[in-house]
Amino acid sequence: MEQTVIWKRLDDTGMEYCTHILGERTEIHGKVIRSLPEEASFVDYRVVCNQDGNTEQVIIQYIQQNKVQTMRLQKDANHRWLREGIHLPELDGLVDIDIGATPSTNLLPIRRLRLNIGESQQMTAAWVRFPEFDVLPLQQIYTRMGEFEYEYRSLSGYKARLRTDAEGIIRDYEGEWAEVINSGH
Predict the structure, then answer these.
(1) Do 68 and 61 meet the contact criterion of CB atoms below 8 Å apart?
(2) In 3-state terms, what secondary structure has residue 91?
(3) SS3 (DSSP) at 72
(4) What's the pLDDT band for 185 if we cut at 50, 70, 90?
(5) Per-residue pLDDT tens over the stretch 74-131
(6) Which string of DSSP letters, residue by residue, matches 97-126?
(7) Once rounded to an integer, what is the mean pLDDT over residues 155-177?
(8) Calpha distance 123→142 (Å, rounded)
(9) What is the pLDDT of residue 28?
(10) What secondary structure does DSSP assign to 8-55, as a single string?
(11) Could you give the 3-state DSSP secondary structure of residue 90?
(12) Are 124 and 138 in contact (CB under 8 A)?
């Protein structure tokens, strides 16, 4: 199944066009455009997961006004994270990617964890930060609040409610993103 979503930032600084491919393997492809007073940027990314929903490969291109950067992350056969072929031991054993420029990657733990209403799960994701364009471990907690509602918290203190559809695709990200249109139902 393939679903495309267009999100708009609630502060009117950007939009995203994102396609989710949900089947034997999960893939997410997105394009995020931001326009802030101090900087305009574009993020083009692709996430590929295995049949268990574990992130296997991530390719991100980050374009700023006069700068183009690319990040290639993958996990090897020993579940070690590599960036451009260089081992990142601080990420070893982490299952999910969290690309900070998009709400799309919240789908990954939501689908994989399969929480019952009222249940919470703490996990650590490989978090790609912007504008730093680095990747760090980030402890997170997901709590299922209702059939299509989750609370996301990072141990840094950030918190938001996420509204999803039946597949776990984010439709509304409290205070940050809202769906404009979707297709492929």
Answers:
(1) yes
(2) helix
(3) strand
(4) very low
(5) 998 788 999 999 999 999 999 999 999 999 999 999 999 999 999 999 999 999 999 9
(6) EEETT-SGGGHHHHHHH-PPTT-EEEEEEE
(7) 94
(8) 8
(9) 97
(10) EETTSSEEEEEEEEESSSEEEEEEEEEEETTEEEEEEEEEEE-TTS-E
(11) helix
(12) yes
**pLDDT tens digits for range 45-88:** 999 999 888 999 999 999 998 899 999 999 987 889 999 999 99
Cis status, amide bond into 131, omega within 30 of 0: yes
121-124, long-range: CB within 8 Å, 24+ apart, which pairs? 123/95, 123/96, 124/94
Tell me how long the chain is.
185
Report CA-CA distances (Å) from 12 to 9, 119, 146, 163. 5, 33, 28, 20
Whole-angstrom Cα distance, residue 160 to residue 7? Answer: 16
SS3 85: coil
Q: How far is CA 173 from CA 64, 75, 143, in A?
A: 25, 28, 14
Work out the average pLDDT over 35-40.
Answer: 85
Task: Assess whether pLDDT exceeds 70 at residue 184.
Answer: no
- Contact between residue 63 and residue 33 where contact means Cβ atoms under 8 Å apart: no
DSSP SS3 for 89:
helix
